[in-house]
Amino acid sequence: MKSLILALGLLMSSQAFAKEVTIYSVYPAEEISAIFTPFTERTGIKVNIQTGTTDELQNKLLNERNDTTADLYLDKDITFLAAAKKADLFQSFTSKTVKANVPTHLRESTDLFTLVFYRARVIMYNPNKVNPSELSTYEDLGNAKWKNRLCVRTSTNSYNQALGGYLVKHLGETKTAEVVKNWVQNFSVEPIKNDRGVIQALADGQCDVGLANTYYLPAFIRANPEFPVKVYFPNQKSFGTHINGVGIGIVKHAKNVNEANLLLEYFTSVEVQEAVAAAFSQYPVNKKANMTTILESFGAFNEDTSDLSQTTEAISKANEIFKNVQYK
Ligand SMILES: [Fe+2]
Questions:
Q1: CATH fold label, 2-118+244-294
Q2: CATH number assigned to the domain covering 120-242+306-324
Q3: Tell me: the pLDDT tens digits for 86-125?
Q4: How far is the CA of 67 from the centre of ligand 1 (A)?
Q5: How far is the CA of 1 from the centre of ligand 1 (A)?
Q6: What are the residue ranges spanned by the domains of the chain?
Q7: Who's near 226: CB < 8 A, 6+ residues apart?
Q8: What pLDDT score was predicted for residue 10?
Q9: Which pLDDT band, with edges at 50, 70 and 90, does 18 fall under?
Q10: Distance between Cα 26 and ligand 1 center (Å)
């Protein structure tokens, strides 16, 4: 009897190993392949990872069309995922487990992709210069009281484009243009190359308030627990703080759709969520999973729970506004 079970087990696993799934990923294989090792051990589904930039992978999918070996596409930002959606590169995932694991606002509205972990784009401030009671909303960063005190990253960056989409979605174009124009008038320095630079400028006293993604701050705090930059979650009384995340969807011409759905179930399960979100210092999309201690120390917050597709659809308008008000 025992040998029969063993033999069955072997048979099952050798059959199962014939299955595989291929992910096109902007993250290099060495950064993410460990995530899928337990998945392969449990299901027998081999996970292949092919890496490239957003443009490379999306062009590849467009050129390969029906001949593609890709089953899933993973990218780091809703701006890029929305571009893939617009190019008709996805099909909806169907797994009920994934829909149960991930709240609606963290999935594309027709399930073309789901976020797998996410961050908030928050106001960061130097507590030696600013009392958090002075802070409220993204819009308020245009208030004259922040003149020569605000620093931000360049407008060509996808994180700011998505934030612009959020503003247009909630405020409309006219009001957004007014807000961003006021931000520009408050800049203490020219737009900075990256979020880390914004955080460093706050610590160095080049500015007092800025905008950055939550996951950039933990490394600074780990290096120096007294690091003089803090997180403020804006728009708590209105639309909730703008969030953006890393997401994955099943590609339109996937050959291994069942396996791809199983991988999404695995990726959004509590155990994986906890480990992976922590490794990337981001928030888990599965609300049953705990977040890492350092994110917990930033505090609970209301996030924007409206449709993320409406944010991404407003990005082109936001880009026009950035240009018009000369936010470089
Ligand atoms: Fe980043």
A1: D-Maltodextrin-Binding Protein; domain 2 (3.40.190)
A2: 3.40.190.10
A3: 999 999 999 999 999 999 999 999 999 999 999 999 999 9
A4: 32
A5: 54
A6: 2-118+244-294, 120-242+306-324
A7: none
A8: 45
A9: low
A10: 12
